[in-house]
Structure formats: structure tokens, C-alpha cells
Amino acid sequence: MTDPAQLTQLCERLGASRAQAATMAAQLLKRADQLVVERGLTREDALRGLLEIVVKGRAGEVPAQFLARSSETEPR
User: How far is the C-alpha of 36 from the C-alpha of 49, rounded, in Å?
Assistant: First the structure.
């Protein structure tokens, strides 16, 4: 099974419709490829990090790296 097909299937299992899941999978792969270039990550590490964000977001959790950013940008 290809990466897009696997990611589409995962997004469907997380509750997205087939069309939404396909769009999400394409966006995740595109962003992972951007992170490879920008940060020098492997594609696997980039996808792992993005999928952690997706799963936590689906569960209503805020990943730690976003909590740190929000406290830096809050007005005093």
C-alpha cells in the first residue's frame, strides 16, 4: 500500500470522510516533504511528528510544542 493510501486510511479511521481523508493525506505528505527540506528531518520523522499532532488534536489535546508557543505570544 502506498503512503497516500495508508495515510488516507488512517485519516478515515480518525473520523474523516473519504474525500477529506484523501485531502488530509496529501497535505500531510506535502508538509512532511517541506519539513525534510526546512529542518533536515527524515521523511519518516517529519510524518511521525505531524501524525502525533493530528492524533492529539483529534483527542482534544494540545501538543507541548504549541503550549510553549502560546505562552510566549500571550499579551502581558
Answer: 12
